[in-house]
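Hello Y.,

Per our agreement to keep a running log of every chain we model this quarter, I'm adding this entry. I've kept the format consistent with earlier entries: sequence first, then predicted structure.
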Amino acid sequence: MFTRTRRELFSDIGRGMIAAGVGASLASDLGFRTAALAADGPGRLTFGDLDPLVNFLQETPPDKLITKVLAKLKAGTELKQLVAAAALTNARAFGGEDYIGFHTLMALAPAYLMSEQETDAAKKPLAVLKVLHRNASRLKDVGNTKETLKVVEPGKLGTERGGEHLRAAVRTAPKDAAKAMADAEATFATIAKQGKPEDALNELLIEVDDATEVHRVVLVSRAWDLTRFVGTANAHTMLRQSVHYCVNVEKNANQGKYNAEVREVLPKLLDQYKLLATKPGTRSTDDAWVEKFANQVFTLNAAQTADAVAGALAEGFSADAIGDALSLAANQLLLRDEGRPKSWVQANKPEGSIHGDSIGVHCCDTIHAWRNLAAVGDRRTQVTSLILAGYQVARDRTQRAEFPKWEPYPRPEHRETVKGVPADALMKELDAAIRDKDQIRAAALTARLGEEKSSAAKDVFALFRAYGTSEDGALHAEKYYGTVADEFARARAAFKWRQLVALARVTASQYGYAAPGHKEACEVLKG
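Predicted structure for the entry above:
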């Protein structure tokens, strides 16, 4: 919750006087906030010490952003501070309601990971600069005075659990979306005020798990991840974006029908297996169990898979073991995908491509998000997240009936084509395959590297990271890179390289569409 302090009020008055004296353009160049003055008022969100940097990012147009951000970095601003300010800028402006806006927010923490992993000090800012430029471009498109999130007053809770009250408010959206938004916002503000950020997350997830869909899940997971940048004092701002997202989705009357099954299945399984009364399981598994469970997803429907996950939890299998299997199943969707059909072609996403919002990328990002939520939440969040992850993998698989019939890449005939490549030339050939947009060869070369030179993982990640930074990726490059990096780190040795093979395909698929602002950033950094 945020209100303006006397110090912030007088600071804004001072900036307004400077703007009036020297002119808006010069005041902006000097770092004073002018463009957003029209949005100032008692309901405006402010962010304490981060406020000047937040306003700087909100007001700076994309054609001036790179130079000005690099100047701030040179003057001592830390990259992590810029990520924090960008997250708050984005949240205040878009509030989880704008498609490009919330995709940009979800890319921030993964972009920072990419920057941290960059070994060339001169190139470290590039991945973050790419996302900051995207944020500025979207703000320019919608008007940089746009502010969706305002200060919200807490409401009153009923006798039911706070998250259940929130869910009930959101479900009224088809009748009156405006009232549903106001009630849901007030409810969540009360929840956030009464407990710790972790408690607010658990209550919010009672609403989030009312449906399975990539954006509602990844948004809340990435928003929570961003609290390590913006601080727990701003957790409410990060998390309330999901309230806006869920209300906006729910106001479509078809959502109730589309999600009717999962809304019936989840509480039934919780009761049937008495999962909320049990402690987290610690039962270990071997690789064969994990692969067998993953393969089941390709034979069971969504409700059956949810039941299988609930059963495994009741039997005491660890959350990590179940998560490993679900991650492996999602990875299969990407490895098996024959590519985008003609009917799905869009700008920068041609026939045969698998990057951007492909079923595999979406599913991998979603299961990764569910796993992360299961790891940080309470017992209810843990079990519901894993059950819903299983439900979603199976449901996503059914979007294309051919998935169980297709063989995963690289297939035996693909492996044959790279057998003659000398071991010391594999990395060079992989680079060439990406530039040729050859998904098949890139997958085969990566698989061979994993079999013969598993120590090369660091070099392979570096190659893919460079292209994940330089190429646009249709809003998903950073997110998916972050997913693969995490899943590779925690995967069992037998399955680690499947994650990199999938990333090889995506990297080759997205090559050839340069990221806006990247060339300029490289030139400024060289200068």
